[in-house]
Amino acid sequence: MDGHSGIATVGQAIQLSVAPVFLLSSIGGMLAVLTSRLARVVDRAIAAEARMHDLATSDRTSSYDRLDTLARRAKLVNQAITLCTITALLVCMVVATLFVGAFLQFDTSIPVAVLFVGAMLSFITALVCFLREILIATASLRIGAR
Fold first, then answer.
1. How many angstroms separate the CA atoms of 21 and 87, rounded?
2. Cα 110 from Cα 49, distance rounded (Å)
3. CB-based contacts of 106, cutoff 8 Å, min separation 6
4. pTM for the whole thing?
5. pLDDT tens figures, 31-58
């Protein structure tokens, strides 16, 4: 590969990898939202557990129910974080595959397509987990007098 065609190859690989890099930025934003939600759920669970000692036995049942709900929410957010991280790794592999294919001059269409479809399936599943967590949070929301 001579110097001029090498630069053209790198330029083409960079052009092809721009869209996946923007996708990585979006996944990073999603991870920030998810970690923030997980932190809030954990903080609420810690506060609820601390209040358990001061409650009468009859009031502890509702507190246990709240803790169970918080545990379900934490599990769903954790799953969504894991899936978003897998998505980011797969997208990074897409970019790496594009560059390796450009330098070694082989057809990367099938590996890139498989990695990208895997990334999208992982991201869709993460969004479903996120939606389920939001639905649980909304269902357990108490506004107004108790």
1. 12
2. 51
3. none
4. 0.83
5. 999 999 999 999 999 988 888 777 766 6
